[in-house]
Design a protein that fits this description.
285 residues, alpha/beta, Rossmann fold, 8-stranded mixed β-sheet, 11 helices, 8 strands, binds NADP nicotinamide-adenine-dinucleotide phosphate
């Protein structure tokens, strides 16, 4: 990975931390997209305890805010005129209805709409790299997902966290394949990291009972280091796997995603509608 620049979101904890650390160990230069600069600096320090020569810079990014995404993309464009790899790792899970700064339901907003905008804003820098890749951390939860555009910006009555999470991860999987169709020179893969013992289930977003259940499960699920394996594989494996746009499981095996995730017309409509949503929120493509 020497000579390659990797931008990764959500590197402070869980899967993102171990992905970033291993890529630094393999010689990549890292740009870490974090909500809080001090936490990001602490993450760089943690990476350097394991990899003293790690090349890592921090830039602030809140995927729940268009302005923050645009500022971050601007910084990345300056820091990396040639961006080799983008890893859309950051994500949330929640059962309480809240919206992002731009009015999106939080899970579709942070897990999909934010990474969609960020990826689009970084396309020119990715295209400038000799073999660019985008790795999208999705989830097997997408198998239960449906796309309902009305739910992108409203709770339509009673809010249920899991269907909203599943919808967001279906959108991520569709986006990964559509990106590959529209930009065949950019490798674009989505993945399920496994069920991994991370902080994704937080009590403030999920209630104490779900958070407690998740904590009790921790000894029986994958470690975050193990959960990072597929992201690392897809960022580094040479030659890049075929076909472009493929979905992978936690064993780095190519897998058929859900029937809806294979629907090319749905993927096309999702791309267009998401662009429209962002334009209505003030974004310029
Ligand atoms: N754990 C699992 O079993 C599992 C299963 C399937 C898929 N996944 C996916 O794996 C990815 C990584 O999650 P994880 O399990 O490693 O959980 P995690 O430890 O909670 O990590 C999530 C990361 O996302 C960042 N993040 C959250 N909201 C953000 C925002 N608005 N803007 C920017 N960054 C934000 C967090 O940043 P802070 O440090 O600022 O909080 C954190 O670093 C997610 O996409 C998740 O959906 C996880």
């Amino acid at each position: 990975m020497k000579g390659k620049t990797v931008c990764i979101t959500g590197p402070n904890s869980g899967i993102g931390f171990y992905t970033a650390q291993e890529l630094a160990r393999q010689g990549a230069r890292l740009i870490l997209g974090v909500r809080n600069r001090e936490t990001g600096d602490a993450t760089v320090a943690r990476i350097r305890t394991a990899v003293p020569e790690a090349e890592a810079e921090v830039a602030t990014l809140d995927l729940s805010s268009r302005r923050s995404i645009e500022d971050f993309a601007e910084q990345v464009r300056r820091m990396a005129p040639r961006l080799d790899i983008l890893i859309n790792n950051a994500g949330v899970m929640g059962s309480v209805y809240t919206t992002t700064e731009d009015g999106f339901e939080q899970q579709i907003g942070i897990n999909f709409m934010g990474p969609y905008l960020l990826t689009r804003l970084l396309l020119d820098n990715l295209k400038a790299a000799p073999e660019p890749r985008v790795v999208h951390v999705s989830s097997a939860a997408h198998y239960g997902g449906k796309i309902d555009f009305e739910r992108f910006r409203s709770d339509k009555g009673r809010y249920k966290g899991m269907p909203a999470y599943a919808q967001s991860k279906l959108a991520v999987t569709l986006f990964a394949s559509e990106l590959a169709r529209r930009y065949p020179d950019i490798r674009s893969y989505s993945l399920h990291p496994g069920v991994v013992a991370t902080r994704i289930v937080r009590s403030e977003r999920n209630g104490w009972l779900f958070a407690l259940g998740w904590t009790l499960m921790r000894p029986f699920v994958l470690s975050p280091a193990r959960g990072a394996k597929t992201s690392i594989y897809l960022a580094t494996v040479a030659p890049p796997p075929e076909p472009n746009g493929q979905y992978f499981d936690e064993h780095q095996h190519p897998m058929k995603p859900s029937r809806l995730a294979q629907d090319e017309e749905l993927a096309r409509v999702l791309w267009e509608r998401s662009e429209q949503f962002w334009k209505e929120a003030g974004a310029i493509f």
